[in-house]
Amino acid sequence: MNAPRQGFAKHFYEQIDRTAKRYAERKPEQEKVLSEIRVGKNVDVNLPDSIRKRVGQLRIPLELDLPADAAPSWAPMSTIPSGPAEISELNLGPVPDNIRSIAEERVLGTNNLMPIAYLIRGSQVSRSVGRVVIRNRFGQRVGFGTGFLVSPNLLLTNNHVLPDETFAEKSVVEFDFAANFAGMLLPSIEFSLAPTRFFFTSELFDFTLVAVQQNDSSQRDPREFGWIKLHESDPDRMVVKGEFVSIIQHPNGESKQIALRDNQVIDIFDNFLHYETDTAPGSSGAPVYNDQWELVALHHSGVPERDEDGDILAVNGQKWTESMGDHRIKWVSNEGILVDRIVREIKNASFSGEKAKLRDELLNLSPDTHPTESEPSRVSPPPVDVSRVVSSVTPAISQVTSGLATTMTIPLSVTISLGGLAASLTSTPPSSAAASSTTTSVTDDRSSQDPDLQAALAELEEADTRPYFDEAADSADVESYYSGINPDDLSGPELFEKLFQLLEKTHASKLSYKPSVHLYPWIDLHEDGQLRSIYSGKKFSAEEFIREDFRIMQLRSIRLREMLAREGSFDAESMHEAAEALEASLPFNCEHSVPQSWFLKRQPMRGDLHHLFACEVGCNSFRGNTPYFDFSDFEETVRDSCGKSVEDRFEPASGKGAVARAMLYFLVRYPDKLASGLAKKQRDRIETLRDWHRKFPVDRYEQHRNQAIFQKQGNRNPFIDHPDWADKVSFDEVSA
């Protein structure tokens, strides 16, 4: 393995080496454990005393819905002390045999049914988990990790994520960086780290504890996200071999994800825990929970799969190289540091002044206690913001802007409020004439008052005073952006991997799909201040497009409300179908060069500005989700002003070069995001895209777009900056 050994990466790869060594030493024992677990002999891989301790530790009342006549003599979860203790030690009375039996089955991995309360609790504890954006002393982003609050003021992550105070001072933690039900990112909140207030790290046990400070601009406080209590407890009480654990993480710096109950513990030894799970770089520093959502370990490293020569293998089975990036390594096992080891290290360290107070707060303050006035108050996880949840139910509802408020409570009631206009969906719907009148007046009135609309129009007005394209600044940006890539030294697949890593790493702002806000006011403007349909070339007023999109956005909301009022009741499937129909009948004037159905309307693809273009509704519908094609008789045939469409083939009348480069960008940025079968079709048409790319070279409009998107989104289209690279990149890496 020729892993990099400098800077931030040095710490990461050294941890891999140490973890792999421990794994190799214990592999015979772990293989024996796995063989026993796979045939259901979970009891045989644990000492009887370990199982007794583990079952005794369970918070059984949290897990089971008891019949009404089985009122327990033992306390509910809320009254059980937060510290570890066996049930018999709590003086809660005898546990019914049937309850203890189910508890044992769950511990031993033979009963995988979980109560709904399990998901609710998991959602609560997940709020304290954040994405760590790692920056070096120059403020340059060098990677991502995961961290989580373990007190109102302290964050726990790995030493190899934040190895020293210099890294910590420049890095930040971002909470609520997560997608909703529709895959749309929620608004996140960023906090700076304060190593001068508190910083304690251990390279041996690979953990770092650092203070988090309030966000000055928003006045948000990290304690509102809750925290996870660290318990110094016998590991046998917390987890046994064969038991499942769950990991909440930000893999590869992506939005928050969870490896849920498919992760079996295969070894517990010394200060470490080994388990099989889906984790990736960026998951370093993630919390490892048992089924009671108690913290059992800090995830810190994986064991890569190697071939017989000792070389690390990539996820595609080939030999891994540095140019692929560590996220392409195939991991065979993972390791966490047991939480009791971390607590002992913290307790044994010497602190004074404020640092001692923060350490004592960590050890003594529980999220379930009620602190005195001198102690920081615990903020319980806030109630679900249903206006954010409803936007995830269907893409149509998700278009409601800040000028509208949508509230849904499922399955009891649904209410959609438009400023002063509100109607219960269980009320009698208005007559069609009244509804039509209301729709017109409300959309006209609300559109003009919407703050997002006003901001978009203000940016459009400002466009008249901005330089359209700064060639000198753009040249400097291009040189800096690709400074680490020399295509002459790389093969086609290696260049693909390098560009993929770069585009993914620098895609800092993953925008929601709001073309009237993000695209039309500046990015997609031509130098004359007009928008042009990407397929027909027709000119349109940007203000016209912006106002029309906002009108449609609000009209969708009103029609959905009216439709639901008529239906009286609905399920998730019918609601999704209704929203899809509304979106089809009220489309935006925006074209995805890669159709939304190809990536199931998921983010960040849906809002990625590099493949969004202004396009009148007629051309948008004319193309549909048809792949691009080059007709031999295109110029001689009678065709629509938008182009020619026959079965599964479409050739636009205009914009071929721009859409070809947008498609090539998409395939490099998202090589594994296309729905099944579509990737192969696009690989088969790469030569068509390359041909259009050569015949219709980059113009000033595309350079302006690329520069503006770079400033707003963080990444660039390499085929605009370096047109010759289109023939050098191999697209065989795009997943089939």
TrEMBL record:
Coiled coil: none
Ranges annotated as biased composition (Low complexity): 426-441
MF terms (GO), sorted A to Z: nuclease activity; serine-type peptidase activity
Source domain of life: Bacteria
EC class (word): hydrolase
GO biological process: proteolysis
Alphabetically ordered keywords of this record: Hydrolase, Nuclease, Protease, Serine protease, Signal
E.C. number(s) listed in UniProt: 3.4.21.-
Keyword Protease included in the entry's annotation: yes
Pfam families: Endonuclease_1 (PF04231), Trypsin_2 (PF13365)
Cytoplasm found in the keyword field: no
Membrane-spanning segments: none
Residue numbers spanned by region Disordered: 365-385, 426-451
Active site as annotated: 160 (charge relay system), 206 (charge relay system), 284 (charge relay system)
Family to which this protein belongs: Belongs to the EndA/NucM nuclease family.
PANTHER family with a match to the protein in the record: ENDONUCLEASE-1 (PTHR33607:SF2)
Protein name as annotated: Serine protease
